[in-house]
């Protein structure tokens, strides 16, 4: 949020400086250009932040699911315990929490190096409705101005 506010402040300062420097005949052409360019940069920046935050959340959540499953398998087969540990007990254990952080970090950097895209075509097929909804929202946001 602070970064977005700083970007808006910088855009406003640039607009004010350009308006003061330009003569009146160029202001009518340049002001809409500055407005739409700064709006485009703001939307692009917000979308990039959305993709990064979503990627981080997905990687941490996926790592949490894997660690939870591994803890249950560990309790059932290696410790021969009939009692399945609760999720809070798993995440309270520093060993499992560390494993979650390591897996989440690996997942996030894998998504980062791939450019935040879905590589396998079968995943694109299964997630087709969600990808379509994302593209539709992207188009709505771009055409809202």
Structure description:
With 145 residues, the chain is an all-alpha fold. 84% of the residues lie in helices and 0% in strands. The longest helix is centred in the middle third of the chain and has 55 residues, at 24-78. The radius of gyration is 24 Å and the shape is elongated. 6% of the residues are buried.
Shape: elongated
Strand content: under 5%
Assembly state (oligomeric): single chain
Report the strand count.
Answer: 0
Could you report the average pLDDT, rounded to the nearest whole number?
Answer: 76
Element string (H = helix, E = strand): HHHHHH
Quick structural summary:
84% of the residues lie in helices and 0% in strands.
SSE layout:
Elements: H1 2-21, H2 24-78, H3 87-92, H4 94-113, H5 121-126, H6 128-142
List keywords for this structure.
single chain; 145 residues; mainly alpha; 84% helix; 0% strand; elongated
